[in-house]
Amino acid sequence: MLRSCAARLHAVGALRGLRGCARPWARSSGPAPEFFHEDHSLPKPSWSKDMRLLFDQFMKKCEDGSWIHLPSYNYTLFQRSQDISAFIHAYLPTASKLINEEKLLQAKIFTRNFEDGLGFEYVMFYNDVEKRVVCVFEGGPYLQGMPGCLHGGAIATMIDATVGTSAMIAEGIVMTANLNINFKRPVPLCSVVLINSQLDKIEGRKLFISCNVQSVDEKTLYTEATSLFIKLDPEKQV
Ligand SMILES: CCCCCCCCCCCCCCCC(=O)SCCNC(=O)CCNC(=O)[C@H](O)C(C)(C)COP(=O)(O)OP(=O)(O)OC[C@H]1O[C@@H](n2cnc3c(N)ncnc32)[C@H](O)[C@@H]1OP(=O)(O)O
């Protein structure tokens, strides 16, 4: 069990471009530039007290191995242009005709490219036995929708990132096919919330993952969501 979990996390690491991880579609290998390796899921001066407290609580749970802290980077999906190109041609051949590969070199994960404390601050933890990913998330002032509230698109983004991480850990290269969200209460801007995801079932290439967003004291249920992810099949020519 531990070995397969480690293998899947290794695969997620590969998706995130960790140094030394195998990338089966990659045509080249070699060291990545250092800036790829700053882990943005570690405490920063901009984090609130609640964010730090929850980070510490989950890190404590990691000590016996039941939970795993998932690192997070802000760089492009892959380290070299050949890798990007190989990935897109293997998995997204139809889309590849419309993609400007030069621009791809500037691509970054958009949740990780605001100045510290202004946008998406988050850290995720994974429990293999329970098939859960929990995200501790604080949406900064640049994510405002209605005055004083977090933009619904920002909430949807973080739900997608959380359930997407769960799907990638389970099955590797996946895409969101369906994301169904009920916004039940507005999320106060700059408050910390817990995004709890649960892998419900896998049927062939389909992964069903549910999710909720709660206040830190778990008294307020802000959002509920269900999602469907599809494991990409290179034979299908999406
Ligand atoms: C690789 C990532 C690296 C990331 C690096 C790390 C960074 C950290 C990131 C954190 C995580 C972020 C996660 C973000 C993830 C996105 O946001 S992805 C972006 C948004 N999604 C998209 O653009 C997907 C667009 N859609 C598609 O490309 C295609 O529809 C799909 C989803 C690939 C499926 O196409 P397909 O492989 O041809 O599947 P198809 O054979 O049609 O259907 C397979 C089955 O699924 C069912 N199905 C398909 N679609 C649906 C649907 N919408 N509703 C219900 N059933 C459906 C079919 O009915 C079929 O069922 P069965 O007949 O087998 O029972």
Strands, total number: 7
The CATH topology of the largest domain is given as Thiol Ester Dehydrase, Chain A
Please indicate the count of domains.
2
Spell out the helices and strands N to C: HHEHHHEEHEEEE
Short description:
It contains 6 helices and 7 strands. It is of the alpha+beta class and 238 residues long.
Write the layout of secondary structure elements.
Blueprint: H1 2-15, H2 49-62, E1 68-70, H3 81-91, H4 93-96, H5 101-104, E2 120-127, E3 132-139, H6 152-171, E4 174-183, E5 192-203, E6 206-215, E7 221-231
Antiparallel strand pairs: 1-2, 2-3, 3-5, 4-7, 5-6, 6-7
Helix pairs in contact: 1-6
Bound molecules: Palmitoyl-CoA.
Descriptive tags:
single chain, 238 residues, alpha+beta, Thiol Ester Dehydrase, Chain A, 7-stranded antiparallel sheet, binds Palmitoyl-CoA, mitochondrion, hydrolase, lipid metabolism
Descriptive notes:
The chain is of the alpha+beta class and 238 residues long. 28% of the residues lie in helices and 26% in strands. Bound molecules: Palmitoyl-CoA.
